[in-house]
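Q: Got a minute? One more chain.
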Amino acid sequence: MDAQDLGLLILRVAAGAVMIAHGLNHGRKLDSTAAWFESIGFSRARVQAILSAAGELAIGAGLITGFLTTFAAAGLVATMIVAGVSNHRKAGFFAFNRPIEGWEYVMMLGVVGLTIATLGAGEYSIDGAIGLNVSGWPGFIIGLAGFGAGITQLALFWSAPPEKEPNE
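A: Always. Here it is, folded:
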């Protein structure tokens, strides 16, 4: 058993479980997720809520099983860029800032995604079993493409809502 492959498995499963939990939460509460997305500036909020839930579930499954891992990891990067810019950036760095958590948590998940994309799935994965090793510079570039995909989603479907006055 190679320690690096074991470490990648642990990292993939942990990040994948987080994404599945978020996907299930968004999917079970589509109406409230859509209303929240609209409140933070997303157009076509219902479609965004459905795609968010489905995307998070697919990303999580890909990471946990290690199937098309580099692309799932790029999806994680994209998701965290969207979450960070649309919701968390205005709260500062720390996750304990309330009522909106800061961006440290989404930054760390984004870095995890880029790291997994760069290192690949490892031996303990479907990708490893079928010989699909997308890692190194190609994986890093695919991970960065996730950054571009997140920015594109924001450019097409999001605009920052106007700031509320303190007495509103």
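A: The chain has one domain: 3-157.
Q: Perfect, thanks.
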